[in-house]
Amino acid sequence: MLGRFPNMRKLLSIFALISCLGGMEAASARDVIHKGDIVVVPLRGEVSPSLLTFLRRTEKAAENSGASAIIFEMNTYGGRLDSAAEITSALNRATIPTYTFINSNAGSAGSLIALATQHIYMAPVSAIGAAAPVLPTGEDLPLTEREKTISYWTALIRSSAIKNGHNPDIGEAFMNKDKEVKIGDRVIHPKGTVLTLSAQEATEKINGKPLLGDGIAASIVDLTQKAGLKGNIVSLNPSGFEQLAFWITALAPLLLLGGIIGAYLEFKIPGASLPGIISATCFALFFLGHYLAGLAGWEVVGLFVLGVVLVLIEILFFAHSTIVFGVIGVFLMLTSLLWAMIDRYPGETFFPTGRMLAIPLLNLFLAIAAAVIVIAILARFLPRTGLYRRFALMTSNPPGPSLVGAPRQFVTAPLTRGTLGTALTILRPSGKARFGDHVVDVVTGGEFIPPQTPITVIQTDGMRVVVKSAVEC
After folding, report:
1. Any idea of the CA torsion for 366, 371, 373, 377, to the nearest 10 degrees?
2. How many degrees, rounded to 5, is the angle at CA 50 between CA 48 and CA 52?
3. Which of 91, 96, 100 minimizes the C-alpha distance to 120?
4. Alpha-carbon gap, residue 52 to 88, rounded angstroms
5. How far is Cα 4 from Cα 316, in angstroms, rounded to an integer?
6. pLDDT tens digits, 334-389
7. Which fold has domain 401-469?
8. How far apart are alpha carbons 306 and 298 in whole angstroms?
9. What are the helix (H) ranges across 269-402?
10. Alpha helices, DSSP H only, in 70-215?
11. DSSP state of 42
């Protein structure tokens, strides 16, 4: 079947190569984790989208591999609140015990992330807190925006702290300087400044319960001993693929648009291989980025390839008899593209909820809507361009004696609307046809016509002959 599409093997090879570039990197995380292991994930530097990509991928790898616990070794002064919100959401979905080991600093957004884990241990010299929102320049937010931001984050922090067994007033005081913290009659923190706690302050026991941290630990090994964790310690580290995955997922609609347009041009101009290469590259990068981001697995790639195969079967063998294979193939391809963008965690229901579908559906809709507009423009103007005619003339004759010695011309015969002929090659949409004693280069309006099919001329435009099938449906 692929032999009838000479570029298809090349395109599938490109797709497979790009898809596998990061596949080994992402798969290695699952390979090194065994059931019962304790997974240590570093959380260092700025809280950013690439850090979210890394933490989400490693969390899912740990859960899918049956790890007994996951420890986030934290040393950060904070970063972007939007990334912190996404990380907080991801950690609150964890199905295995989660620990934060504050190895020096859990400042600003870092303190909010720590509250999203079930247990907090701190190094002897460390601090947590000071999460007041500020502008990227370090200046305070305008009053109205500050109040809105604090109001939203206060609700988020309190709910996250309650879920994980922490004092919600402590979390709120990290961000809101107007929050007073009292336990019984004792004022832990007065109004006027945002709260920051040292390791000793955070682990002080009041009424038999630590203020925030479970304890002080000198190292990860010390933490596992004090927490009673059993199992081998496995460390996972970020790679350059995380930044790549962030940009790919951010540009998902453009990659889908490029893949769809490239596929259209590959079938529209069969003599050209560049559109097909672009299409295969765009789709491969799309799946690669979402795989590295912890959103998609290899099953969605297999679903997409199956859809492509069914569409090819429809085009090559059933173009004039049924549309079942084509419809199922397109459905599988769209389903795989949508599924690759859904952020699904272990233990969640198989069918995604409305919130999980919102952004993926929007991205897919934008890509398809833009592709329909671009394809409509191309269908109208592309056949009139010199580039299209040049590639249409490059379509080679099929082997065999049927065309040997036959006079060829690009339309010197008096072809008019309604002239009958026979397709000599597959018209996809350009190819060669016989009209009497003349072999002529022709093009269809977009449909594919198999060889030896009766055709009729519907339009002549200078040197361009447009035909359609003369077979009654």
Report:
1. 160
2. 75
3. 100
4. 9
5. 8
6. 888 888 777 666 655 666 666 667 778 888 888 888 888 988 888 777 766 666 65
7. OB fold (Dihydrolipoamide Acetyltransferase, E2P) (2.40.50)
8. 13
9. 274-292, 298-317, 324-340, 354-381, 386-393
10. 81-91, 109-114, 143-163, 168-175, 199-202
11. E
- Read off the tokens for 409: 């011309």
Kindly list the distances between the CA atom of residue 346 and the CA atoms of 31, 294, 401, in Å, as whole numbers in the listed order: 17, 11, 61
Express each pLDDT in 217-271 by its tens digit. 999 999 999 999 999 999 888 766 666 666 777 778 888 888 888 888 877 765 5
C-alpha distances out from residue 46 to 107, 239, 259, 438, 456, Å: 10, 15, 34, 71, 66
34-235: CATH number: 3.90.226.10
pTM value?
0.61
CB 58 within 8 A of CB 27: no
User: CB of 273 within 8 A of CB of 77?
Assistant: no
Rounded Cα distance, 275 and 273, in Å: 6
Residue 307 in contact with residue 332, Cβ under 8 Å? yes
Do the beta carbons of residue 106 and residue 72 sit within 8 Å? no
The tokens of 430 are what?
A: 């350009």
CB 255 within 8 A of CB 363: no
- C-alpha distances (whole Å) from 93 to each of 86, 90, 167, 339 are 11, 5, 19, 19
| Burial label, 187 (beta-carbon count in 10 A; 0-12, 13-18, 19+) | exposed
Whole-angstrom distance, CA of residue 333 vs CA of residue 322: 19
Task: Report domain extents, the chain.
Answer: 34-235, 241-386, 401-469
Residues contacting residue 155 through CB under 8 Å, at least 6 positions apart: none
DSSP-assigned letters across all residues of 322-360: --HHHHHHHHHHHHHHHHHT----TTS-SSPPHHHHHHH
CA atoms of 473 and 471, how far apart (whole Å): 6
φ, ψ for residue 272 (rounded to 5)?
-100, 135
CA distance 298 to 304: 10
User: Partners of 127 in the beta sheet?
Assistant: 105, 198
The answer to whether the beta carbons of residues 132 and 107 sit under 8 Å apart is no
Q: Do the domains 34-235 and 401-469 sit in the same CATH topology, yes or no? A: no
Distance between CA atoms of residues 140 and 162, nearest Å? 28
